[in-house]
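Explain the record.
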Amino acid sequence: MSNHLSGSEIRQRFLDFFAARNHKILPSASLVPEDPTVLLTIAGMLPFKPIFLGQKTPEFPRATTSQKCIRTNDIENVGRTARHHTFFEMLGNFSFGDYFKEQAIAWAWELSTEVFNLPPERLVVSVFKEDEEAFAIWRDKIGIPAHRIQKMGEADNFWVSGPTGPCGPCSEIYYDFHPELGDKTIDLEDDSRFIEFYNLVFMQYNRDADGNLTPLANKNIDTGMGLERMAQILQKVANNYETDLIFPIVAEAARLAAIDYQKADEKTKVSLKVIGDHVRSVVHMIADGISASNTDRGYVLRRLIRRVVRHGRLIGIEGQFITKVAEIAIALSESVYGNVRERETVIKAELEREEARFLETLERGEKLLESILEKEKSQISGVDAFTLYDTYGFPLELTQEIAEEQGLSVDTAGFEQEMKKQQQRSKAAHETIDLTVQGSLDKLAEHIHPTEFLGYTDLQATATVTAVLVAGKTVESAAAGTEVQVVLDKTPFYAESGGQIGDKGYLTGDNLLIRVEDVQKESGIFIHFGRIERGIVTTGDTINAQIDRSCRRRAQANHTATHLLQSALKKLVDGGISQAGSLVSFERLRFDFNCPRSLTSSELQQVEEQINNWIAEAHE
């Protein structure tokens, strides 16, 4: 076998092998996919999905990439098994209607046995049980004994890119760590013996929403070799976390906790591995423009950061530490993914902010959770889990994790019931609070004039605080940690209106920092909803109001895009199309319209091209 190739060398040898066979080396796509049906880039083929569907013409018939990916469906297994990750790199070679099964199989074998020098007697392959063609190629052309070619079912060897889209049978190559056990009873489910490191997808079909398979116009090849898995094999280590791709992060976490990794118990090693894995994820997610939030991919980021922080606490790391391990992750990947170093300041600021916020949450909630764990014998009640969530900011998953470590379960059905009750209370309270805010404003009407909106020309402004409200009731002042509604005499903040959400940003003054998360408008008066991060705000204060320019810019782009979308639909689909609602947020837009039929794939493609052409024309 090869002499302990580094992760970087494995990646380069893979790309060079296919480049020498007329594959164009393409850079990794962002973790934020263009495909709206997927939250994060989960596979190396995802950037090529429009090509595989025939919606886009490829610039090259063959390509090869090292694609960064995130998957969280196996998050509970991270650190507990040898090879589950949230972040991983998928090495891939792709054919867009060019070569097919025989060539893909031949090259995969050549790469595995002649470039990476894996002994053929240690390799086992699997094929889809109905794919006799692939079985014959492996047996007759490559020369693998029939008993080392395993036929497997649809769950294992029929690859899909999602609920709909391109799909087809696949063939996988496994490495055998224990050939001395013989090959009479090969069980590829035994992951202590076998590791799947290369998957060849023979993309022949498109699956529609009803599950029907239609042959693709062009047969395509999509392969994926797990970089971390190949590194484990070639570097002869016990698991992926001990490869040079991840272990330096693990070692830094161990150093910060004053732990010797090799002498650590299994529970401590799991925590160190979780940190090693998740830190890679969050660094690349933030580098690709994701910020922590309570929805969609922002929630995935927040959850991963919080798991890092909590596992740091479990192994005895005191205070904030996440940027120290993030620095190692940045150093390990900057030569391939330059944006991690370019956005280092942004990455560290986001991590510091989230870590500080969560440490406060942990300190407040851990004492309550300890007392709950002491009194419960088998299950944490839904009421207690919801109290931890609602009052102390403990996500349900975190309560479940901690409970599981103590051998307890959580009444999730009870939690959901409490959540529904809270949503009903919130709905009623929202109406009441609106009225209370309005009532309070009415009482102050002689002091408060409609807010002067400056946001069309100014992104920041010096303003006077004309009212401070807490839970809808006016107060003279409010201090750090309080959720407040602030009224100003003038503001650059856009208030939610016409489907577009309100601006985010900050109100600052002498030792004052209020993070504004929403702005609403009542009778011409703008109400800034936020949380006081630092200091005290008092009626009459002079403050600086500054919107988040990045959020505003994205909202502007999405707002413009709704108009372009309506125009394109009218022009290309049906002149009678009319708007039936919309949402314009920082992350996305939603445009509701009336149309007597559904759009075809071709029409969607034409609409997309028309809008992009208009954008490229850069009209004033």
